[in-house]
Amino acid sequence: MTPRLPTNPFATRFTRPGVLPPLDRHGNPIDTARLVRSLQTGAVVVLEGPHGHGKSNLLAALLAAAQAGGRETLLVRMRTGLDAWKAVAAALTAPRRACLGCDGWERCPPGTTAIIRGIAAVRRLSVIVTAHGPLGLPVLARCGTSARLLAALVARLPGHGDLIDGHDIDDAFTKHAGNLREALYDLYDRFERRIRERCLAAQTTAG
Amino acid sequence: MADAPRFVVHFDRPDRTYDPLAPIVVRYEVHGLAAHDTIRAVEHSILWYTEGKGEEDLGVHFFERIIEQERLPPRTTGLGFESVLPASPLSYEGMIVKIRWCARVRYFFAGGRDFVSEHEFLMGGIPPARMPETGA
Predict the structure, then answer these.
(1) Which one of A185, A196, A199 has the shortest CB-CB distance to B53?
(2) In the 8-state DSSP scheme, what is residue A30?
(3) What's the CATH code, domain A32-142?
């Protein structure tokens, strides 16, 4: 039978936006319901932070909280400038007072951001966008990270046995300058290497 | 909050390892259904998905949705599904990406609650990828 190695708990399926709960930089849960209640209709607000600091995860959690509160929600992930037109279409077709998430607002050409803001104002939408730096928009949350936050996230992942320890977490966090996405990928690689070493050692012992 | 039902799944091959193009038969029992649980629909599927770093992918090979009450628990107890596997992709234990095959059972209850249970199996016999040699 083909050997099946243990599941890598740092795989994307366990860490992609919306799977892990949003935590603040100290590793404490963020009150998404409170943030949703603070949203004004007809306005665009921003989740601000560098790459890999949890903006997309927080956005997914906010939309889930808005949905749980009875609001219609839509999410547009903007990978290229052309996706801005998907956001325009979403803003035009969303029910009034819906909550629209735009992940990657800086990829929108300036003209389209003005169009989306205009539509949001007219249709009383609450628009939450993510951005790496100041945009001149009201900031709903600034996303920060710490090694403690990374440890708190790792503690919420499926078990990794004793293959990853606190030193690995601190090292991955430092090596990637606080970028949690890259740090989790780093831990994924460490787990893969060690699980193979362990299986190889077990085969050698058995042989 | 209602307790989740428990699925006991039996594959026709006890080692859960299949060749490409082989038939696969999945039977299961469901336990822990509350008396007030009304099942609206059941979905059975056989699918592969990737697991690893970065983008994910999946492909559904077999799918059926059952909504006829006479085919749903509690009226039916012997539940299962079968299919013939495709030629590819084979199960693969790579370092960056893995390919997993699974049989999935999803129950939809009245009130909007649903429950998903996945049961992995292997297709093919590709050994796990080895770590690249390091050093000179």
Answers:
(1) A185
(2) P
(3) 3.40.50.300
pLDDT for A2: 54
Q: Which residue of A has its CA nearest to B14?
A: A1
Q: A2 burial class (0-12, 13-18, 19+ CB within 10 angstroms)?
A: middle
Alpha-carbon gap: B119 to the closest alpha carbon of chain A (Å): 13
- CB-based contact (8 Å) between B118 and chain A? no
Which pLDDT tens digit goes with each residue over A90-122? 999 999 999 999 999 999 998 899 999 999 999
Q: Residue B129: inside a domain, yes or no? A: no
Q: Tell me the pLDDT tens digit for each residue of B61-91.
A: 999 999 998 888 776 767 899 999 999 999 9
CATH code of B59's domain: 2.60.40.640
Residue B37 inside a domain? The answer is: yes
Tokens 């293959």 correspond to A163
Q: Which residues are CB-contacts of A189 (< 8 A; sequence separation ≥ 6)?
A: B53, B95
Range of the domain at B65: 6-123
Set of chain B residues whose Cβ sits within 8 Å of the Cβ of A198: none
The pLDDT of residue A199 = 82
Whether B131 sits inside 8 A of A197 (CB atoms) is yes
